[in-house]
Amino acid sequence: MKVTGLTDGLRGNARRLCGADFCAWITEAEYGTWGSWEELQKHYPKACRTSEDETHFPLAVDGTGVRVVVIFHQQLMILCCIAPSPMTSRTAAFHRISHPPKIRKTSEPTL
Asked: How much is the pTM?
């Protein structure tokens, strides 16, 4: 696929937030020849389709990754931004439910 949209700002954010995984992803994406979302999903099972033609590829442990517009019939990926994982793809482990407050027993005044 042809990968476009890589600006100096995006590259800097990617290095800071995703490390070397971003460079590896770019290299893989440039050699990819996926013809459909299903084919892409087989190669990147953690990718999250955020709209009809937009996909989020998580690259960091916390789910931060690259958001990309994918145009399969033109074999084109347009990098949009480095972004946190979309809420729909975050695992339940990140959602914490707080425990109810503990009720303290206070001594009642004696008469």
From this structure: 0.75
